[in-house]
Amino acid sequence: MLDYVNLLLDAINKYNEDDVDSKNRLRDLVCIISENDSVKSDPLIKELLYTASHKMRIFGYNVQNGFYKQEKY
Question: Structural domain boundaries of the chain?
Fold first, then answer.
C-alpha cells in the first residue's frame, strides 16, 4: 500500500485540473487507497486523501469520510 501512497503524493504534486489523465489518475488513487480502512486511519494518509479530494473539488468525499479542514491529522 505504501507504493500507492507514494503514487498519490506524486499525483497530487503533478495534478493539473485541465488534464483529464491527471484527474483520472488522482481520482483512481483516492478510490483505491480509501477502500482500505486500516490505511485510511493513518493521519498522513488522511491528510493526503483530504488534499487530493480538495484539489479535485470533491468535497462530498471529504464529508462522507469525516475529513474536515479544522481537524489536524
Answer: 2-64
